[in-house]
Amino acid sequence: MFFLFLLTAFSLQTIGCPVQLSVMNEKGNGMEGITVKNKAAFLLGYTNAQGNITVELEEGKQTLLFYKDGKQILDTTIVIHCNGSNQFKFVLSEKWNSPVQLDEVTVYSKTAKQLMDISPFSVQSIDLQKEYNKGGDVSEVLNRASGIKLRTDGNIGAPVQVNLGGLQGKAVRIFKDGIPVELFGHGFNLGTIPLNMLERVEVYKGVMPLYLASDALGGGINLVSRQEPEKTLELSYEIASFNTHRATVYGLWHNKSRKWYIGTNSSFNYSDNDYKVHVPVYATGTGVRVYKDLRRFHDAVRTYYVEAFAGVQNRKWADDLRLTLIRSSFYKEIQHDGIMDKVYGEPFSKEQNYTGLISYKKGFLENRLKVNLLGTYSFFNTKFIDTATVRYGWDGELIGSGLRRGEINLGNNQQLNYHFFSSRLNISYRISNAHTIDFSELYYQQNRKGSDPLGAITAVEKIDVLTVPAVYRKNNMGLGLRSQWFNKSVESIVALKHYYFSTKGYTTDNFGLGWRSAVSNRQPGYLAGLRWNNERFMAKLSYEYANRLPDENEIFGDGLMTKENMSLKPEKSHNINLNGQYTLQAEYHSLTLSAGFFYRKVKDIIFLQLDIPFNKYINYERSEVKGFEVEANYTPHKLFDVGFNLTYQDVRRVDVESIFAFLEGSRIPNVPFLFGNTWLRKEFNNLFSKKDRVELTWNGHYTHRFFLYAIPKSQEPALFGKNEKVQTSMIIPNDNRLGQFSHNIGLYYHFPDKKLSVSAECRNLGNVRLYDNFNIQKPGRSYHLKFVYQFLNQNKK
C-alpha cells in the first residue's frame, strides 16, 4: 500500500514544449534584439546575438508577435507538437516586410526547459547568456540575486559558502546539470566557474524539485551547462588585478543531419591573490603590536577543467546518448588560519580529478513516457602538505626556524584517494494533459583510502587511520504528482521522498584503541506546492519536510583533530515559502515586483563541538528562521534597466540547553541577516559604427553588520541603532560601520560583426575593507579586462 501511495504522488518536470525560434535577415545573419510576444502581448523575450530565442509554449496553435525598435514587423501562427519538431526559422527583408517562414524544422533532442517562474516552487532562474562578456565567476552573479548570500575567505579558489533562506554550508546542495558538484572536484566550484561555461543557474529556495533527488535541508543551486543550438567555437580570456588570468573554450560541432555531435566546455584559472590586507605585525625592537596594510604572499591558486563530450541524437532508440570525459586539477596555497590570526608560508593542497559520465534520454509512447538515465564515475587524488619547520610573519619574512614540523597543526603529509560512483534515474509519465507522475532516484557512493605518515595512528595497533577504507553510501528516492487546473492557471504538486545512508570506517577512542564500525539511517520526506497566476499576477505556496544526511567526514571525523560520532542523526527542517509577483508588460517598458516570505524550523543541527584533545560533530542546536525578500525591476526601455532587491532573515536559537539559557532567542552567529543589491544598466546601439553595441553597468551591494559570536538577545543593538553593549571585536565589520557597501562599474563593447566583444570593469570601486567569514578580509579595488571571440557561429556570415 505504501508503494502504491508513493506511486501516486510525484512531479511533472516540464510545462509546455520547448520551441526554438530563429530570426534572420535576407543575408542569413541573425537579427539581435527582436522582441517576441504572444497573442496576449505578454513578453516572451528578445533574440540573442545570433537571432535565436528559446521559449516554452503550449501544444497546438500559437500566435507570435515580433517587434523591431517598437514597430511590429511580423504576426504569425505556428503549430507546436510536444513530440515533434519545434524549431522555426523566419527570414525578414531589410524593410521589415514580406516575412518568409521557412518550413525547415529541426528537433534538438534536449530535455524541455522548465518554466521556472510559474512552477509551484520558490525558485529563481538566472539567465547567464547575456553575461558571457562579463568578467569574474558565477559566484559574483549569484551574490546579486535576492535571498542568496555567497561568502568567501578570499579571492579566486577560496571556499565559497552559500547562505540561502537563513541556512548555509552543507544545508544548501550544489549541482551541475543535476549531478552533485563534488563529483567534479575543486576545479569546478562556485569560485572558479567563469560565466561562459553556463547557460543559466537555478536557485531553489527551501523546497527542492524531485528530479534532483537531493537531501538538501535549505534548498539548492543547479548549474546548467551551456548548450548552443548551432555550431559554435568561442574563446574568452580575462586578465585582472593580483596577476589573475582566466580563459574558457566552448565548442560544438554536429553533422548536417544532426545525428551526432562533439564538443568541449573548458576553463583555466590562475591568480596570485596577492591583494593587500590590514593585519597585525609586531614592531621591531619594541614588540608592540601594530596594524599595517601588507600583501598576501602565499595564496596562489591554479585550476583547470577540461570537459569533452560526444553523442548521438534523434535516433529511434535514443533521443540523446552522450559520453562526457572530464580532467581537472586544483592547486591552492594556504595563507592563514580561519580568523587571519596565524600566518603560514608553505602549506598547500592539490587535487587531480578524472570523471566519466554517460547519459541517456528517450521518450516512449508518443513522448508520454520519458526516461532520463545518468551514470557517473570519478577518481580523485588529493594531497595536503604541511611539513615546514619554519614560521613566517605577515611581511613574508622568516620569524623562526628549526621548530616542530607543521605550521598549521602537528604536520601533515596527507594523501587521499577517492572513488565516487553515482547514478540518477528520472521517469515521468503523462497520465493526461493535466496530470503527470514523476519518479526519481539518486544513488551515491564514496570510497576513501589514503595515508598520512605524520597523521593520527592508533596506540595499540599502530595503524594509520587513513589507510583503513571508509565507505559512504546514500540512496534518495522520490515520487510525486503534478496537476494543472482551471485552464492551467492553477498548478499543484504533492510528493513523498525517502532518504537512506550507510557508512563504515575506522573508529578510535581517546586512548588510541581502534575498531571498525558501521552505521546506517533512513528518513522520510514530503512536499507540497500550489501556484496560481494570470497575465499579471502570480502567487505561490510551498512546503517541504526536508532532511540533510550527515556525510562521511561528520560521522568518522578527519583522522586528525576531529573524532567520529556514530550516533549522529540527519538534520531536519520544516520549510514554508509564500511568494507573490506582479508583472506589467507594455510595448516600451516593463515593471516586475516580487516578494517572498519564508519560514524554517530546524532541529538536530550538526555542529562541530570544539573540545580537548579532539573535536566532534554533534546534533546540538535548534533554530527558527523567519524572513522576507523583495525585488523590483523596471525597464523604461529595452535598452535600460534599473532595480534593487533586499533580504532580511531572522535566524534565532530556540530550545537551548539550560546551561545556555541566556542565549535563548539569540541570533545564530556569523550569519548575515540583512543584505541587498541595486543595479543600473544602459545600452547604446550604433554608437561608433553601424550595428555595434555599448553597454554600461553599475551595481552596488550592501551587507548590514552582523555578529561574529553569540550575543544575548537583550544586548543586541537596534537594527539601525548605535552599538553600546557589544564589543566591536564581536561584530563584522569591527570598525563601527553600520554595514559594508561596495559598488562596481563596467563598460562593454560589442563589435559590429558580433564576433568580438571587449569589457573593462572596476570592482570595489571605493576600495573599502570588506569581510565575510570570521573577519577574513576580501580583496580591495580590482580591475578586469576581458575579450570574447567567436571563431565560428553558423548564424553569422
Notes on the structure:
This protein is mainly β. It folds into three domains: 17-102, Sandwich (Immunoglobulin-like); 116-225, Beta Complex (Ferric Hydroxamate Uptake Protein, Chain A, domain 1), CATH 2.170.130.10; 232-793, TonB-dependent receptor, beta-barrel domain (Maltoporin, Chain A, Beta Barrel). Helices cover 2% and strands 55% of the residues. It contains three helices and 45 strands. The strands form eight sheets. The chain has a 22-stranded antiparallel beta barrel. Strands 9-15-16-13-14 form a five-stranded mixed β-sheet, with no helix packed on it. It is globular. The N and C termini lie far apart (62 Å). Mean pLDDT is 87; it is low at 1-15 and 96-114.
